[in-house]
Amino acid sequence: MNKKFALLLVLMLALVMGSVTSASAAQIKATGQWTIEADLSAGNDFQKKGAVSEDKTFNIAQRVRTAFEFIANENLKGVLDTQIGTANWGTGAMQVGAGRSISTAAYTLGAAQAGNGNIMLRRGYVDFKWPNTKVNFLVGYQTLSLPSAVGGGSPVLDDQLAAAAAVVPITDGLSLVGGFGRLFEVNPSQTTTSGANTGSGTAGDVAFLIANVDMIKGVSLKPWLAYANLGAKTAATTLAGFQGANSSSISGVRAYWGGAALTVSAFDPFKIMADFNYGKATWNNNSNTHNDGGRQGFLFDAAIDYTGLSMMTPELFFAYSSGESGNSTNGGKSDRMPVVGSPQTYALGSFWLQGGDSLNSGQMNTPDAVMGYWALGLSFKDIKLIDKLSHTVHFIYFKGTNDVDYLKQKTLTGTQGTNAAYGKFLTTKDSLFEVDVNSKYQIYDELSVGLELGYISANFNKNAWGAVNSDYQNYGNQDAYKAGLIVNYNF
Question: Is the full-model pTM beyond 0.70?
């Protein structure tokens, strides 16, 4: 072969390889939130000293979230979001040796061999636009939060799941977001051929449709619909948020929701926000002793911000969720709104409903556990009197909407019994008054240190709870306190 021709061929191959490498290269953008919190608390179970479930008073917790965007161009990127923790120091991912095998058996395989420090996947999906259109697709394991204007997130569904979604612009003031997600699959590709997880009913799916309506200046409306169908092999023991009184663990469930989130900023300096959420879950019970066991209910909330002050933003808010009627006998329905799992971010205040920046190392409640209350609150947000130092103060009164006779249902067992537990479940004769004072000092643009203080004055009815809770009958209730020191690195 002619040497000049060979040299030319080599150069051409190098050029082709170089162009391929360039085409395959992606810009990488990293973001994250690393949080460490020392938490001192007392009375989280609202029971006086001497009760069986007496609180642990001091924990240090840590959570490490790190996300990467692999950006090919303005129309295509991949997202990888990871997390280690949340875990208290000395346990799980934060105990000695968690980053290596903690098993004494050298032959142990899988997660135990890798150790408790394994990285957890929060999101992993492809984000792309269809060529020559504005239609955006998100396919893979991602976060889905249904619309919400109050509380920081949806109380119905706000979690990570495997899904395919599309964002479709219709006009300048209207776009649609729709998709499908798989919540569970206990027998993929029928890999299990015998036993309880075989046959039909091994999957659980959800479909959703959201309309983003911004046709009037200063007015944003987001109506939405969602539907879930879970097979008998997946639902009851996994998602407490679907369960009503005496729902059977061998039944599938169908559920649907509808709602809307409204934000109005046209009346400056006032900002109005409101949500309405309704849901119903119906169980396919196949036992004579479990005739229904479904759930249906609603949650309404509203808030008004005054934005005319430079030093703070006052907010008045109200929320109401339907509660149990008290007549849930064997096979009865629940009158609390069904939710998908334990939504992550919906909260009023920063103590009883787990809001704020806290890792909640002394966890109080989840939206599923406490549905059945009304709340009236006043917040003073983002108070700035000193450079780099800000404060938020909450005053909230909670009152139960669950009929006190619901506690007399002797057939309430299992997960549903847990969801009607003392300290998490408010009857019409129970109330809480919460005060939160949260402060944050911005050391650098990316680094802050915060102090979250909380107090809850508890008033649980002794006659109602004494009959079903021996600890309460013996010791009565007490107030709850917390102080959390939080270091937060955002980048």
Answer: yes
